[in-house]
Amino acid sequence: MLTAKHKAYLDKLRDSGITNMYGATEYLMNKFRITYEEAKVILMEWMSLYK
Is the CB of residue 40 less than 8 Å from the CB of residue 51? Predict the structure, then answer.
């Protein structure tokens, strides 16, 4: 479910230092108008890119 738009948003959010990335689910939900479950999947996919 991770798209280029999601990745760009999460990269920018991480670089901003506004939130610990474990708290990024709420930001994804608000920005993309998606459910908690969808946001959680997207965040986990994004995090897996940086293992």
Answer: no
pLDDT at 47: 97
CA 45, 49, 50, 51 dihedral sign is positive
Domain of 29 in residue numbering reads as: 4-48
Q: Cα angle at 40 between 38 and 44, to 5 degrees?
A: 120
User: How many CB atoms within 10 Å of residue 15?
Assistant: 8
Q: How many domains does the chain have?
A: 1
Overall pTM surpassing 0.85 (yes/no)? yes
